[in-house]
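Re: the request from the purification team.
They wanted to know what the chain is likely to look like in 3D before they choose a buffer screen. I agreed to run a prediction and write the result into the notebook, where they can find it.
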Amino acid sequence: MKIIRAKDYNDMSRKAANIISAQIIMKPHCVLGLATGSTPIGIYEQLVEWYKKGDLDFSEVTTLNLDEYKGIARENEQSYYFFMNEKLFSKVNINPKRTFLPDGMEPDSGKACADYNRIIEAAGGVDLQLLGLGHNGHIGFNEPGMAFEAQTHCVNLTESTMKANQRFFASADEVPKQAYTMGIKTIMQAKKILVVVSGEDKAAIVKEAFLGTITPKIQASVLQLHNDVTLVADEAALSLI
């Protein structure tokens, strides 16, 4: 694992965006695995800025997002499709037909997951997977458990994850309790993995996930077994390493 230390959030965002832009430039038709949440926002802003300057071309890029809430329509402001469209897709020249997320409105979990697995397979897998890191070590919505789930699956979100998401919704009752997410096997099959972490509140889990025991209780710990992982984190997040 390669660890890149950044001064702060903005520096982390720029360094991570550099890695993604290099991937696009080296392979214009690459498949990017993308993440949502607050941490990647600065990365997407930087990529948009470089696109507007003429430095990046997204016309041949395919994107596969990690996850989507179950039961929330794409048009809902809290859906991950809406997030990606607002932060990146609508601001660059990416082909909307090449942007994929699990279908949150498919009530049949088995069908939704099988459909997304087929989409990932048809894309030829992921060249570069962007990941954030949850306070409990989750990646995507792969929550602490007894096993590493293989492929796309439906998860019951933990209380801590729902509490973290509550700030985005008008009330606690509106916070989704389930989500569709890429599995650990799918994530681990990505050719390269880029993990971004910011903030002192993540320092303990960074140390545990990347220097501790590999266990399904900390899903991100499995990344220690991947042969091409880059962790870009600010000084606060790396303060215990």
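For the purification team: Strands lie at 2-6, 31-34, 62-65, 67-69, 99-100, 128-131, 153-156, 178-181, 192-197, 229-234.
Please add any questions underneath this entry.
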